[in-house]
Amino acid sequence: MSSRQEEKEQRRLEREQQEAVERRGANRKARVRMALGALAALAVIGGIVALLLSQSGDGGGNDDGRRTATNVDGVTLPEPVTTSLQDAAKTAGCELTNAKFEGAGHEERKFTAADYKSNPPTSGAHFPTWYEDGIYEPGSVPDLGQLVHTLEHGRINVQYKPGTPAQTVKQLEAFAAEKTGYHLLLYENTTDMPFAVAATAWTQTLSCDEMKPEVFDALRTFYQQYVDKGPEQVQ
Q1: Could you give the angle at the alpha carbon of 194 between the alpha carbons of 170 and 223, nearest 5°?
Q2: Residue 235 resides in a domain
Q3: Does 124 share its domain with 35?
Q4: Are 144 and 191 in contact (CB under 8 A)?
Q5: pLDDT > 80? residue 23
Q6: Are 55 and 195 in contact (CB under 8 A)?
Q7: Is 160 helix (H, G, I), strand (E, B) or coil?
Q8: Helical axes 85-92 vs 215-226, angle rounded to 10°
Q9: Is 108 in the same domain as 175?
Q10: 96: burial class by Cβ within 10 Å (0-12, 13-18, 19+)?
């Protein structure tokens, strides 16, 4: 074989080797793209499943026993009569209390009703984290320190005593939905309060010994007066 032919053959072999290397590289890149695409698809599917699960149940249930406030079928609340908190509370037979400020420190411990001077509490030392807005099933808000913390962030806590009739609870849920659940928590009281229903804000209480139609105006005006009035604003 002449020297010229040998050179041509050598260049052909080198070219074929280079093409083989490039094909292997392209195949690897294609496999990586396919793997990344599959992972992305799984992530999207997982996100959709998580969203559907979070929205399942009545009003979008959560693992912590919390639901978002939604309209309650078959429940109609009395129409508003007054925008005056004092007038509404008096008509409903409820009492307004401006409780003494008890502090606002954070402590990582278990809090009980004995840690506070008012029942239900409206200020004082509390747990560093807090409960989210929403409607809570009975027994799902065991940490009093987290409830107090919500008040510091301008929330309104509406609470009813254990044993409250289911229809009354539905009416209170309808009230929460009326406010679109904005910065409001509704739950069964955990402090053995002596009232049928109470609403609390930071250092403020509306307490009602008896649940009756006029109470809803009292709740409405209390909410309007004190929502987002806490010393710390957290959205």
Answers
A1: 50
A2: no
A3: no
A4: yes
A5: no
A6: no
A7: strand
A8: 150
A9: yes
A10: middle
Instruction: Name the E strands within the chain.
Output: 66-67, 94-98, 134-136, 156-160, 184-188, 197-201, 204-208
Reported as a single tens digit per residue, the pLDDT across 165-203 is 999 999 999 999 999 999 999 999 999 999 999 999 999
Is pLDDT of 8 > 80? Answer: no
Domain that residue 36 falls in:
1-54
User: 182 and 206: one domain?
Assistant: yes
CA distances from 114 to 37, 78, 98, 101, 169 (A): 57, 36, 19, 16, 27
- The verdict on residue 71 lying in a domain is yes
- Tell if the pTM clears 0.85, that is, is over it: no
Distance CA 46, CA 59 (A): 21
Distances (CA, A) of 68 to 8, 37, 182, 210: 78, 35, 10, 26
What does the pLDDT look like over 123-146, one tens digit per residue? Answer: 999 999 999 999 999 999 999 999
Q: Assess whether 126 and 197 both reside in one domain.
A: yes
Q: How many residues does the chain have?
A: 235
Domain annotation covers residue 233: no
